[in-house]
Amino acid sequence: MHTDAIAFAAYGAPDVLEPAATDVPDPGPGQVRIRVHATTVNPLDLKLRSGAMAAFMPLDLPHVPGLELAGTVEAAGPGVRALAPGAAVFGAASHTYAGLALADVRRLALIPQGMDRHHAAALPVAAEAAWRALEELDLGAGQMLLVHGAAGAVGTLAVQFALARGARVIGTASAAGLTHLTGLGAAATTYGAGLAERVRALAPGGVDKALDTSGADVLRDSVDLTGSPDHVLTLADPVAARAHGVRFSSGGGTDDRTAEALAAVGALYENATLTQRIHGVQPLSQAARAHRIAEAGHLDGKIILTP
Asked: CA-CA 20 to 30 A from 187: which of 5, 72, 170, 265?
């Protein structure tokens, strides 16, 4: 089925994103075709478009970007019974900068009643990364977790998931993000020089686990604070991870935790404890502009794109 989309035919700056027409096939077994109501700009979208990931994740060009969505099921593939046409869903999928997209039902969930589609679309990728990280760290109740980049999309959800598990949390952020973190229920401090001393003052009993979502040269301090590289995980810096002997998690394949993460998001929402920030909403036709805004940094949430 034909649909309008945004695609890039060559790697480069945001202006390589241009309107395109693409075909979305009928859903196969375990798949649904979704009418996309909202998608987002993720850091990986920027890296894929620029060519920064070309050596690791080569793409067939032209490529329709996009990693997550909220929308309505239009058609279900053979054997799919859990999600019928008309169901409002959110989840992870590929090529979501389009009016229609295919998705694996295992990476989708029903949008919780009352949640708007913009917020739903912004959750899946960040929630999966945050949930996967806490699972790999084996974070338990009563433990102290240090989250670097805690005011970002992944960090914000990691803080909330950790607190829901009964852990205690210290989050690092810029000065502008500290109020956001304390509002979530975390202790908060700024990053930068003297970080380890500030964290020790907030956690005199020590830090059990540390999660880096920022890639801001924090792994040495994290190992010192937790006492072992085995207690530190980064989602942002594979090179530094190797240098300091800590774990790097990129997800995908059998490591994908989207289904668990969406269930955890739903539980937070049902308990009225889910907090999420949206930086702004742009029409999909302005995807290049949205990428420029995202690359400039200093966002207080994800940018939503609406076809």
From this structure: 265
Strands 168-173 and 187-190, by their bridges, are parallel
Could you give the CA distance from residue 65 to residue 33 in angstroms, rounded to a whole number? 17
Which is the CATH superfamily of the domain at 2-123+276-306?
Medium-chain alcohol dehydrogenases, catalytic domain (3.90.180.10)
pTM flag (> 0.90): yes
34 in Cβ contact with 74 (< 8 Å):
yes
The pair of three-digit structure tokens given for residue 249, joined into one six-digit string? 């998690």
For residues 302 and 279, is the Cβ–Cβ distance under 8 A?
yes
Lowest mean pLDDT among 126-135, 176-185, 237-246: 237-246
Peptide bond into 43 cis (omega under 30): no
CB 28 within 8 A of CB 77: yes
**Mean of the per-residue pLDDT values for the chain?**
95
pLDDT band at 176 (very low <50, low <70, confident <90, very high): very high
